[in-house]
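Try this one yourself first.
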């Protein structure tokens, strides 16, 4: 009778890593979108093509993309879900967002049930963006109380 041999457990060696480096915000007017976000971010960003304006944050780019200005034949559609940005100085971001004239004055900073402190805005092209206090970012790991 043959004796079954136990095989050694398979080891998976991960040699690659994944990092998020660009998020696209579709916009209908690249110039007004660049002004809007330049006010909120308190930096000018960089026009990289007629229809793309980049804001580089620690290696990840928030890319404003106006397909018509870039010569593409499609119309922009806002993202279906919010883009989340972790920031220091959350109150300053809210103050600058209000200065754009597009953000209602009754938008307030709130603590969310999952523990983040944040506020949401909708940009002139219809994209939702959530600004989160960097100290309260929740990435799925439960916090001990």
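Now uncover the answer:
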């Amino acid at each position: 009778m043959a004796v079954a041999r136990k095989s050694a457990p398979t080891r998976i060696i991960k040699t690659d890593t994944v990092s998020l480096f660009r998020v696209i915000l579709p916009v209908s007017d690249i110039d007004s979108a660049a002004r809007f976000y330049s006010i909120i971010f308190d930096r000018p960003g960089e026009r990289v093509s007629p229809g793309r304006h980049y804001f580089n944050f620690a290696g990840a780019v928030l890319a404003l993309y106006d397909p018509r200005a870039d010569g593409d034949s499609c119309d922009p559609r806002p993202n279906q879900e919010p883009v989340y940005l972790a920031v220091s100085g959350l109150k300053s971001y809210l103050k600058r967002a209000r200065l754009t004239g597009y953000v209602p004055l009754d938008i307030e900073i709130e603590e969310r049930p999952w523990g983040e402190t944040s506020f949401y805005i909708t940009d002139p092209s219809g994209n939702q963006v959530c600004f989160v206090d960097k100290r309260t970012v929740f990435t799925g790991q439960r916090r001990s109380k």
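Discussion: The chain has a mean pLDDT of 91. Strands lie at 22-26, 46-49, 52-57, 60-65, 83-87, 110-111, 117-122, 128-133.
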